[in-house]
Fold this sequence. Notes:
The complex is a heterodimer.
Chain A: H1 5-14, H2 24-38, H3 73-77, E1 83-84, E2 87-88
Antiparallel strand pairs in A: 1-2
Helix pairs in contact in A: 1-2
Chain B: H1 9-18, H2 23-35, E1 43-46, H3 48-61, E2 71-75, H4 102-109, E3 113-118, H5 155-162, E4 168-173, H6 179-185, E5 188-191, E6 211-216, H7 219-229, E7 259-263, H8 273-288, E8 292-296, H9 304-319, H10 340-351, H11 354-367, H12 372-395, E9 400-404, H13 421-425, H14 432-436, E10 441-448, E11 454-461, H15 466-480
Parallel strand pairs in B: 2-3, 2-4, 7-8, 7-9
Antiparallel strand pairs in B: 1-3, 4-6, 5-6, 5-10, 9-11, 10-11
Helix pairs in contact in B: 2-3, 5-6, 7-15, 9-11, 9-12
Keywords (chain A): ATP-binding, Ligase, Nucleotide-binding, Protein biosynthesis, Transferase
Enzyme class (chain A): ligase
InterPro entries (chain A): Asp/Glu-ADT_sf_sub_c, GatC
Amino acid sequence: MSIDIETARRVAKLARIRVEDNDLPALAGEFNDILGFIEQLSEVDIDGVEPMTSVTPQRLKRREDVVTDGGQQKAVLNNAPDAREGFFAVPKVVE
Amino acid sequence: MTDLNTLTIAAARDGLKKGDFTSAELTEACLTAIDAADALGAFVHKTPEKAMEQAKSADARGEGGALNGIPLGIKDLFCVRGVDSQAASRILEGFRPEYESTVTTKLWASGAVMLGKLNMDEFAMGSSNESSVYGDAVNPWKVDDRKLTPGGSSGGSATAVAADLCLGATGTDTGGSIRQPAAFTGITGLKPTYGRCSRFGIVAFASSLDQAGPMTKDVRDAAILLREMAGHDPLDSTSVDIAVPDFEAALTGDIKGKTIGLPKEYRVDGMPEEIDRLWSEGRQMLVDAGAKVVDVSLPHTKYALPTYYVIAPAEASSNLARYDGVRFGRRAVPDQGDGVTEMYEKTRAEGFGDEVKRRIMVGTYVLSAGFYDAYYNRARKVRTLIKRDFDEVFAQGVDAILTPTTPSAAFGLGEMAHADPVQMYLNDVFTVTVNLAGLPGISVPTGQGATGLPLGLQLIGRPFEEGDLLNVAYALERAAGFVAKPDRWW
Lengths: 95, 490
């Protein structure tokens, strides 16, 4: 599997990372190095093997379904690059 | 009197108890050493006022927790309330958490003193501390004109401990990020069993692999610090609800009758002779201490790195989706007419460094429609096989596994700049299996290579048996008698 420039562009778009056109060939090259390395996994016989979901054999703990925290609007907004009137502010979303 | 900052945690604890010195004096000694060591790039956010305040409280308390009055450095990955915590990334510039990680909460409750935040690779992605927005951390060890890497990602923690800027430090380890820098700087570094320490409040990289652990001047200190960091936390559903034993009490040094396995797959092509020799010497030390050494096989070892480089980027691409310039950190200045998508794309392009971007995009690719089964699911199945290899070795009665920590000694900063990314990944070839299998692993400084640089051996233990593992490490430490310190040039 080889990554071409169009695929690199599509992945960058999916990841929401702007990559300039003239940087795409180098990026595609790096993807190919890494994916070539990963390709070794195709040699492994994985018939009947379950994919790992948890490395420790424990069940997730449960707790009462009650509110444990909240009412911290100021703390939540304190680190926002742009907060106004109790909201996170972002550029226009809908045209 | 010795400079107080050079003490171990255990020695400082005893000295404080006897009243030989105060925590304020001890803390001042560290702060002075830190201010004289800016050339090492270890401390990136210093918190001297907080340190002195905590030290004076510790002195006033007298009797306190196990770490009462002990000054520590904290890796920048840990959120500390009100203190810059930016995972060495531009995208978290100015971020001051409104909450505290569980591990640091426990340390302060135990009486520890915070000296500041420590350098690291950006989002813990790297093996040389060269991907940090703060610039490189520099290894205090030097053999010629070159500046050497302290390793990564916990490079600042390793440098700070090795250069006696603090008594101990926290690190985190996703593929070797505690153990590799410990080996490169001649200190002890322990990655606990997955689930031993809470991950709450630690900036997430790859959640199924990340684990916090101690980086210290010796094995006893690792035992002391681990006990104070560990424990169940309702805020992390993967933290395990089992008792935290007194790990220090396990350090008898008696390993007679223990079985130590040497995995033949760790003898990799092109391994330098000095690493091979160190490994043989380590084997002999454990035999001399009364252990039985057996050859074991971990047949899927060669697939560990490629498995890691699917799973870790996949989890990272998901975890790092939160950095979008909306809720915290830095937002790119939008151009006229930019919508929210352009804002995200520009924010992430200028906020993340190259290695982080690369891993996010590789992760995005392996999780994308059409490739999920071929890459991600296949890697999770191989991970099952890697863990099964270890389960089978432990089922044969092996108590711990001995390997080199790294395939080389510390290399020069900048020397890997033109290598392809995979070359850098090979640093973690001996450590990454342990994260994939969720096991505890410790690097113990065991010798010096031909040029005089420190080298470490790794011991891998059974899950949740850190006490036993630390005891084997203690026996190895005593036999190796590594006491060398870097000559001060900074």
